[in-house]
Amino acid sequence: MVFKRLKEDVDTIMHRDPAAHSVWEVLLCYPGLHAVLVHRLSHPLWARGWRTFARFLSHVAKVFTGVEIHPGARLGRRLFIDHGTGVVIGETAEIGDDVTLYQGVTLGGTSLLPGKRHPTVGHGVIIGAGAHVLGPHTVGDGARIGANAVVLSDVPAGATMVGIPARLAGRARPAERDAFCSYGTPEGIPDPVAGTLASLMDEVRRLNARLVALEIRGLPENERLGAEIVPVPTRKTEQAPLAPVTVPRDVAGRKG
User: Fold this and answer.
1) Dihedral of CA 83/97/71/153: which sign?
2) What is the pLDDT of residues 210-233, one digit of tens each?
3) How far is CA 196 from CA 3, 126, 147, 162, in A?
4) Are the C-beta atoms of residues 244 and 231 closer than 8 Å to each other?
């Protein structure tokens, strides 16, 4: 069983990391693998009540690998911690099978009370570099957490989360959930903040057009005749762009 699990881990790294060129390279040069192997020794000791010795083993692994995995955490099969440095996995964290974590990832707790304080990560999840999942939240199967995102709530299955705090930026179709996505951030993903700002700018343009139309209605008839046509710019994504607005020269730039 021990050698079977080790072979699974090595095959997983060879499959997910194009920089891995040989089995010996993986066995000797991947600190994430070393940290997981030590955790497989410390976790049973923790469960049997040998907690100080279990913590000592995890501390030794942290010194040599830069990866801190609490011996109380529950890790699934084929966990790949790429690069490893700065990864922190808390005591009550639970990680499913086929999960990938990059450097700087934190699965942390936000409560000082005993009990479940750390995240539960589903199967096939990818968490990008520097991302933090804080609190007893659930990350659904096949989810992607983008680099440097800060997750403070539950994540639906197949979702892609980006930003601080993390926001839903898209969902992977069931057929795409098995496709590996480096650093948990697909190319060409839209920025939800930029989209919100663009919508607000469109609303400002619409309100400005209405204001100008009201000003025109209040002008004398002879001044309306000298008005010029000023188109109101809109985004290409709008379904019904506004019609051009008639603006008098006095209102548009005070030309008269």
Assistant:
1) positive
2) 888 777 777 666 565 555 545 555
3) 51, 26, 21, 14
4) yes
Residue 144, both tokens: 């992607």
Report the predicted TM-score, pTM, of the whole model to 2 decimal places.
0.71
Q: For the beta carbon of residue 175, count every other beta carbon within 10 angstroms.
A: 7
- CA 168 vs. chain centroid, Å, equals 8
Structure tokens, 35? 């940290």
Calculate ∠ Cα 40-46-51, nearest 5°.
Answer: 130
Sort strands 144-145 and 159-162 into parallel, antiparallel or unpaired: parallel
Whether omega for the bond prior to residue 119 falls within 30 degrees of 0, making it cis, is: no
- Kindly report the number of other CB atoms within 10 A of residue 252's CB atom: 16
CA distance 148 to 240: 37
